[in-house]
């Protein structure tokens, strides 16, 4: 029986008959268009990576592009998909790398090799690990019992075997920078890595120099994401979880039976076990947005989380508002579309709840990189969003646009009326980032904005005087605009954050409440007076 990878399958195993009306999820542009391309029949189709799909046919793997054209023939034993424009393919037990045109660029010389990260791959040949570059050249030979993947600019290594070996870290030049001294260690994330003390019973965190910056004190410790890391007390039978920040401060008490991964700034929390389990929601500041209650919440994606409440499946937003859907099942949003189930068939909806692709497919994947695959009868199909483009060896996706209308509200800053360049998107107000930084500079809420083109990153630093670049507060939004999600990574005081932001006419616009919460200034709304008030002398409150 044909298999395809589908997210959250177990979550929606039981079909339901709902009689609820479908509310609009957000004021998004409903003009998302897709192209549906028949591509024959495959044994397995995997998620798209960088605009390409790996597939299995006749027991062998190959690769097709977003139009269904075969890029690499079905004659390989294994592959994981494109990354940084290269794909590793195994043939006759040896791995080589091909580019997006299907050309062999690194010969099949390796017993195995990881996908490329930061222009490097960890490969193994002639009984030795090697760090190779994108031409196949050896950057360094790594004489260790095991070498793990590249993460956060560091490579975890282990001496000896899994029982007696010790873990340490090398840099991207292959130089040992943290000695092999740990019984157990995790990969680096956001500049820190969890390691075990010599007894192996407690965990703490080290920085990239090997300095212990968070003492050994936890029974379990996990990767940092959005400036927070999940930590555990107790064993698997009585484990409780909390969250710490990068100083080791406990931001969320160890009182939850599970904490999900952060996505789009939110993670679920649970109390209780089994039938007594209750779900809630926290944000990246550690604030409990929804206290644990009956129902289910799953991973957020593109501003909405799959949830179940009062027997109905639907979506929940960051304010805790539950939006039931009139379908048998719903899945996470990716590339602006989500899979839904109706009468044992699958289709896709947009964030308005509008059916974009009718439920007529017996199997379907979530979208990935603007592409999904689906099946009906003896035919497989590629479903791709029009407007998504791929250039050279890197992804340059043009995401579906959303409608942005000029904010009609009066805005007061510390009691004075200020004319901002601001837009309303999906019921929330988005202000030009540099305008906000400019107007609060010199107050307790001041922050700096810096752009790093090499990293494609926006760096926000609290407490620093803003450096004007010219053009701040010079225009006011006029006329409806088309906005696309900001593609840049965003960092707050050095930690990655998942702010919702949009790109309009060459500028980045951030949700006002996200900025207010991040830099702790008051944001209030007076519906009667149609007035937004920003007060830098008070702290942020929901």
Structural description of this entry:
With 542 residues, the chain is an all-beta fold. The strands form 14 sheets. The protein has a six-stranded antiparallel barrel with strand order 43-46-47-54-53-50. A five-stranded mixed sheet has the order 1-3-4-5-6, with no helix packed on it. A hairpin with a 4-residue loop joins β36 and β37 (355-361). It is globular. The chain starts with a strand and ends in a 7-residue tail after the last strand. Residues 1-30 and 390-399 have low confidence and may be disordered.
Key descriptive features of the protein:
single chain, 542 residues, mainly beta, five-stranded mixed beta sheet, 56 strands, 51% strand, disordered N terminus
Which percent range describes the beta-strand content? over 45%
- Give the tally of β-strands: 56
Widest sheet, order of strands = 43-46-47-54-53-50
Q: What structural class do helix, strand and pairing data support?
A: mainly beta
Q: Unreliable segments (pLDDT under 50, ≥5 consecutive)? A: 1-30, 390-399
- Main sheet: strands, sense, barrel: 6 strands, antiparallel, barrel
Distance between the termini: 50 Å
Evaluate the radius of gyration. Answer: 25 Å
Helical fraction equals under 10%
Q: Indicate the mean pLDDT.
A: 85
Shape: globular
Number of helices: 2
Indicate the topology.
Layout: E1 3-4, E2 34-40, E3 44-45, E4 52-57, E5 60-65, E6 70-76, E7 78-79, E8 86-91, E9 94-99, E10 104-110, E11 112-113, E12 121-125, E13 128-132, E14 138-142, E15 146-151, E16 154-158, E17 167-170, E18 176-182, E19 193-196, E20 203-206, E21 212-218, E22 220-225, E23 228-233, E24 240-244, E25 250-256, E26 258-259, E27 266-271, E28 278-283, E29 288-293, E30 296-301, E31 304-309, E32 312-316, E33 322-324, E34 329-334, E35 337-342, E36 345-350, E37 355-361, E38 363-364, E39 371-376, E40 379-385, E41 390-391, E42 394-395, E43 402-406, E44 410-413, E45 416-417, E46 422-425, E47 428-432, H1 433-440, E48 447-452, E49 457-462, E50 481-485, E51 489-492, E52 495-496, E53 501-504, E54 507-511, H2 512-518, E55 522-526, E56 531-535
Parallel strand pairs: 1-3, 44-56, 49-51
Antiparallel strand pairs: 2-40, 3-4, 4-5, 5-6, 7-8, 8-9, 9-10, 11-12, 12-13, 13-14, 15-16, 16-17, 17-18, 19-20, 20-21, 22-23, 23-24, 24-25, 26-27, 27-28, 28-29, 30-31, 31-32, 32-33, 34-35, 35-36, 36-37, 38-39, 39-40, 41-42, 43-46, 43-50, 44-45, 46-47, 47-54, 48-49, 50-53, 51-52, 53-54, 55-56
């Amino acid at each position: 029986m044909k298999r395809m990878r589908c997210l959250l399958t177990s979550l929606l195993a039981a079909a339901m008959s709902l009689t609820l009306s479908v509310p609009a999820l957000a004021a998004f542009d409903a003009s998302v268009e897709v192209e549906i391309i028949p591509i024959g029949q495959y044994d397995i189709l995997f998620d798209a990576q960088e605009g390409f799909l790996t597939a299995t046919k006749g027991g062998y793997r190959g690769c097709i592009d977003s139009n269904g054209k075969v890029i690499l023939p079905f004659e390989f034993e294994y592959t994981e998909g494109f990354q940084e424009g290269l794909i590793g393919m195994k043939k006759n037990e040896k791995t080589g790398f091909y580019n997006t045109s299907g050309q062999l660029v690194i010969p099949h010389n390796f017993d195995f090799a990881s996908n490329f990260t930061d222009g490097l791959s960890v490969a193994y040949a002639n009984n030795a690990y090697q760090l190779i570059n994108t031409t196949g050249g050896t950057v360094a030979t790594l004489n260790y019992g095991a070498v793990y993947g590249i993460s956060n600019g560091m490579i975890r290594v282990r001496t000896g075997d899994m029982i007696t070996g010790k873990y340490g870290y090398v840099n991207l030049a292959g130089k040992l920078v943290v000695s092999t001294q740990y019984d157990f260690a995790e990969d680096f994330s956001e500049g820190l890595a969890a390691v075990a003390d010599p007894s192996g019973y407690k965990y703490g965190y080290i920085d990239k120099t090997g300095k212990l910056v968070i003492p050994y004190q936890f029974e379990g410790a996990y990767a940092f994401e959005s400036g927070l890391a999940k930590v555990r007390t107790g064993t698997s039978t009585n484990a409780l979880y909390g969250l710490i920040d990068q100083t080791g401060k406990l931001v969320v008490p160890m009182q939850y039976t599970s904490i999900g991964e952060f996505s789009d700034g939110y993670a679920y929390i649970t109390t209780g076990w089994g039938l007594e389990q209750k779900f809630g929601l926290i944000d990246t500041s550690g604030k409990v947005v929804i206290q644990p209650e009956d129902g289910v919440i799953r991973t957020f994606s593109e501003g909405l989380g799959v949830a179940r409440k009062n027997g109905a499946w639907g979506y929940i937003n960051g304010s805790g508002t539950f939006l039931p859907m009139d379908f048998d099942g719903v899945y996470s949003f990716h590339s602006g579309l989500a899979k839904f189930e109706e009468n044992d068939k699958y289709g896709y909806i947009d964030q308005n709840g509008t059916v974009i692709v009718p439920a007529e497919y017996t199997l379907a994947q979530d979208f990935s990189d603007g592409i999904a695959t689906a099946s009906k009868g003896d035919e497989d199909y590629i479903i791709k969003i029009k407007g998504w483009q791929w250039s050279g060896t890197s992804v340059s996706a043009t995401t579906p646009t959303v409608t942005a209308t000029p904010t009609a509200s009066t805005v007061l800053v510390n009691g004075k009326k200020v004319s901002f360049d601001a837009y309303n998107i999906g019921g929330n107000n988005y202000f030009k980032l540099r305008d906000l930084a400019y107007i609060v500079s010199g107050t307790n809420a001041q922050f700096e904005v810096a752009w790093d083109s090499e990293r494609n990153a926006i760096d926000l630093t609290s407490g620093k005087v803003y450096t004007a670049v010219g053009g701040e507060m010079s225009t006011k939004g006029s006329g409806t605009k088309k906005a696309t999600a900001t593609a840049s990574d965003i960092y707050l005081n050095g930690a990655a954050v998942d702010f919702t932001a949009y790109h309009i006419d060459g500028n980045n616009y951030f949700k006002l409440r996200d900025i207010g919460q991040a830099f702790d200034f008051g944001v209030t709304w007076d519906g009667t007076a149609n007035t937004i008030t920003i007060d830098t002398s008070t702290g942020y409150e929901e």
